[in-house]
Design a protein that fits this description.
519 residues; 2 domains; two-stranded antiparallel sheet; 20 helices; globular; disordered N terminus; transmembrane
Length: 519
Amino acid sequence: MHQEVGQPTCRRNGTTSSDSGCVNTNNTNGCRAVTNDLKALKSNGEDKVETVVKLKKQISLLQSVAIIVGIIIGSGIFVSPVGILTNVKSVGMSCVMWAVCGLFSGLCALCYAELGASIPQSGGEYIYIKRAFGDFPGFLCLWINFIIICPVGIAASSLIFATYVLKPLFPDCEPPASALRLLAALIVTLLVSLNCVNVNWSAKFQVVITSCKLCALFMIIIIGFIWIGKGDVDNFKDSFTDSDFSAGSIAIAFYSGFWAFGGWSYLNFLTEELIEPHKNLPRAIVISITIVTVVYLVANIAYFAVLTPSEMLASSAVAVTFSDQTFPLLSSVTPVLIAVSVMGSINGNSLSMSRLFMTGAEQNHLPGIISMIHVKQLTPAPSLVVIMALTLLMQSFEEIFYLIELMGFGFSVVLTCVFAGQIYLRYREPELARPIKLPIALPVCLLGASLVILALTVYQKPNESLLGILFIATGAPVYVVFVYWENKPQLVQRKIRSFMVLLQKMLFVCPSDAKPVQL
């Protein structure tokens, strides 16, 4: 192809194209606009502007651990860590189930570590399912995260954050709904903006927030063990008395505990940005799950040292009740600590999910603009903006907490498909380099367990599960129209290209690994 000297272009993956400014948009004008802006920055002394646009490998092992721990430990351990106790009835059996759930989550995470080390590509379970079963199943996994798990989870967390920040200001009544939504929207906007500006800042912020929530839990643990040291051990005498050992109760208790560890899979979305992912991904997963399991177990022991099982079950916020009975002065601080903990979950979710959607767009399963990276900040700004928009939309729903129930069903489906895909890849691609290779019996057993979890989800939440199936089913026509149907009318393609060019100019982005030249 003839190309004039000095013509603004994008180089990608070693090729030069004068008509490919973004993924699948044939966008010369987008690259021209970005290149002209880069020239202006260069002329103004902005020497730090990168001329190769790509995400950097800058997330360390410590930051990786902080991301996983920060996502897993949200408000649950402070507010209502009683899902297990409700079903098994006793202190001793409750502690056993917390340990079992932590062990099971760790085994699941090890399977993800094997897949992440073998397929070192960002996107996590979406990439694994797509590689094992093909385009359409992979798209449905992406669709579940896009319309259910990500926006609903972040929206609900932001509203919980707002509730606990405003709670001290409205001690005798519920905070106004408008104030809740305004503050929830503000925190999401601030954290998404932080992620847009600098990945390293966001990761360091996650380390700080995770340290704060661990300090809060350590404070609870220390107080609880002080109570034990004073001889308050009545709740631990005959701790297995009245235990419900029925299979149904244990299964439902396990189900409740398993979801308390949700978030261990999210680091796999960031694989390409990890420093030495083949080493640090499995290390971070093992360290994180160990930390969370120990902290959850010991924190519950601390709660039981001060509160009776009936007091825990009756409390609307266990950590607040705990503070009231130990150091009342801490009661006013506890809601703030809960809010900080939730803020860490929001930040970690935004950081990881943005990479999932970016990868989906690179695979042509989402609009190409979502795959692009800010030319100066080197962050997936379009993906983050989409997450913010979807989250703000979900915050407007009155029944947002009803939609949370859909997340359990959606993740159960994804988890089942991942383990099935891992087993299938062992036989279809035996030559695949696997730095970590677990016994095949492990994913087989976990596949069976995930099927049980899926069945329990349907049993426990039949209406929500049916609605979840309908949500997932909407992905089929979306896939046919926007992915499978490639030869759209020229008029439609031109309109799409024009709109994508406009967005690229507005967001100042280029495709990953693109290189604006002639600067």
